[in-house]
């Protein structure tokens, strides 16, 4: 008996369909015709969300099998055939990569996984590793998918969540899904360890609108619950499902830094800063917040329009507020300076806010009012105009210390909301995948 690890990435296209996780599902079925079987959950591995050439969520898949020795060549050849058959090669962004390993995964592949979460990598860093470890591998077109494929097999999750995904046939490209929304709401209610299925208004947020084969994805913290919830969703054309273990919602892409000078482009960071001047709105409704770190380095943090209420709450920050920020570092260039695109903010300490307010009348104690721009103040009760000047007074802040997070529709896959505590202990609860049509069984 031996262990086999398959990593695949970059087979899909945002416009033309497919999804690497769907190909993963098909590969599992083909592999199980050989004398091997899945030894654990299939893994959906999200990598650096800031890579410019990602299709959607920069996801790659790792499939781990155990079985009779000497199967790796057959496994590799079958995967090659399937990648060629199913990948959307005509999309310039589709550059598939495949790696098949028998035995233990080299330690360097795990290091690659961590690097691929935090910076931009090149295939020139990956191919020598694959050769050194005599892996079976293949890259198609520019071969960039090898970066994701190696990172996926190297992935080891300290914390994780689950996502059970229901698939239709890859040939179906409709943007409409035939899902009964009531069944999703009911499944979500019955299985409270699942999350991100329905928003506050009851609208479904677990259904893509792209031409890809995914019908619905249920995220959860408990494998049996997550799988049951998915299988209770009524959907037309559903053919198969997979229960993925994933690094989604763990913040594993974030590196804690102490100084803004260490905020390198394409990385995602968290650090304590102080608001340097009032936030301001820009074209398109985006909010900029100038911030300063403890050693005086400054940068602008951005909250974009689609984050809606998040952006609005942050607009209440003032100079001197102490906050912790999480976000991805945007490279400067052209009209834009380097900046941090905010994922969440913790308000740590609020500065006292003072506004100039009308004083009480020193003669009668009555309220005062302005007589017009530059005209001074007058007592509303006795008409006195002498000795009246606006006074700085502390006003109540609308913000209070605590986390400020965007609504679920603006979450990135790796974003860890405060409402989700990822899992640390692995509970192996097969089945990990299944078929739903009798024709396919
Ligand atoms: P989907 O979420 O639908 O699977 P995707 O967003 O994962 O799509 P891909 O087509 O896989 O998009 O594109 C991401 C590409 O970036 C892949 O080729 C992957 O190997 C590569 N990649 C992943 N991480 C890095 C990194 N850190 N540096 C450079 N390239 C990377």
What does this 3D model show about the protein?
This protein is α+β, with helices and mostly antiparallel strands. Among the domains are: 2-156, Alpha-Beta Plaits; 254-350 and 399-410, OB fold (Dihydrolipoamide Acetyltransferase, E2P). Helix content is 19%, strand content 28%. The protein has eight helices and 23 strands. It has helices at residues 20-31, 72-86, 107-118, 123-132, 145-154, 181-190, 223-231, 309-314, and strands at 2-9, 36-38, 43-46, 59-67, 97-102, 136-139, 161-167, 194-195, 214-220, 240-246, 254-256, 268-275, 280-281, 287-292, 298-303, 322-330, 339-349, 353-357, 368-370, 377-379, 391-395, 402-404, 433-435. Strands 1, 2, 3, 4, 5, 6, 7, 8, 9, 10 and 23 form an eleven-stranded mixed sheet that branches. It has a five-stranded mixed barrel with strand order 12-14-15-17-16. A hairpin with a 5-residue loop joins strand 13 (280-281) and strand 14. Helix 1 runs antiparallel to helix 2 (72-86). The longest helix has 15 residues, at 72-86. The model has no long low-confidence stretch (mean pLDDT 94). Adenosine-5'-triphosphate binds at residues 9-10, 12, 19-20, 47-48, 51, 53-59, 93, 95, 97, 116, 120-121, 144-145, 147-148.
């Amino acid at each position: 008996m031996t262990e086999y690890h398959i990593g695949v990435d970059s087979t899909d296209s945002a416009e033309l369909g497919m999804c690497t996780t769907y190909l993963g599902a098909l590969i599992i079925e083909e592999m199980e015709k050989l004398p091997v079987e899945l030894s654990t959950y299939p893994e959906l591995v999200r990598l650096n969300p800031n890579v410019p050439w990602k299709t959607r969520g920069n996801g790659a898949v790792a499939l781990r099998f155990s079985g009779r020795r000497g199967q790796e060549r057959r496994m590799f050849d079958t995967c090659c055939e399937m990648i060629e058959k199913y990948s959307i090669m005509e999309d310039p962004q589709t550059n598939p990569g495949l790696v098949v390993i028998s035995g233990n995964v080299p330690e360097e592949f795990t290091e690659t996984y961590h690097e691929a979460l935090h910076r931009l990598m090149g295939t020139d860093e990956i191919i020598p590793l694959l050769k050194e470890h005599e892996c079976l591998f293949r890259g198609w077109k520019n071969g960039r998918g090898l970066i994701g494929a190696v990172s996926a097999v190297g992935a080891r999750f300290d914390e994780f969540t689950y996502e059970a995904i229901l698939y239709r046939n890859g040939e179906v490209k409709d943007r409409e899904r035939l899902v009964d929304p009531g069944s999703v709401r009911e499944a979500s209610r019955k299985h409270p360890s699942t999350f991100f299925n329905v928003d506050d208004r009851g609208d479904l947020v677990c259904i893509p609108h792209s031409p890809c084969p995914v019908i619905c994805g249920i995220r959860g913290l408990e494998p049996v619950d997550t799988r049951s919830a998915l299988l209770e969703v009524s959907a037309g054309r559903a053919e198969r499902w997979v229960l993925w273990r994933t690094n989604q919602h763990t913040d594993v892409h974030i590196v804690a830094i102490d100084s803004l000078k260490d905020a390198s482009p394409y990385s995602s960071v968290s650090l304590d800063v102080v608001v340097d001047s009032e936030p301001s709105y820009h074209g398109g409704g985006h909010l900029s917040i100038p911030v300063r770190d403890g050693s005086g380095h400054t940068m602008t943090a951005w909250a974009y329009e689609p984050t809606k209420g998040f952006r609005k709450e942050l607009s209440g920050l003032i100079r001197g507020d102490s906050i912790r920020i999480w976000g991805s570092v945007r490279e400067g260039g052209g009209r834009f300076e380097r900046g941090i695109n905010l994922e969440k903010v913790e308000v740590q300490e609020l500065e006292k806010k003072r506004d100039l307010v009308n004083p009480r009348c020193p003669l009668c104690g009555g309220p005062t009012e302005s007589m017009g721009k530059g005209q001074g103040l007058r007592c509303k009760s006795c008409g006195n105009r002498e000795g009246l000047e606006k006074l700085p007074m502390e006003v109540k802040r609308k913000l209070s210390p605590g986390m400020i997070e965007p609504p679920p529709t603006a979450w990135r896959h790796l974003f860890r909301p405060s409402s989700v505590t990822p899992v640390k202990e692995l509970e192996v609860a097969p089945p990990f995948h299944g078929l739903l049509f009798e024709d396919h069984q």
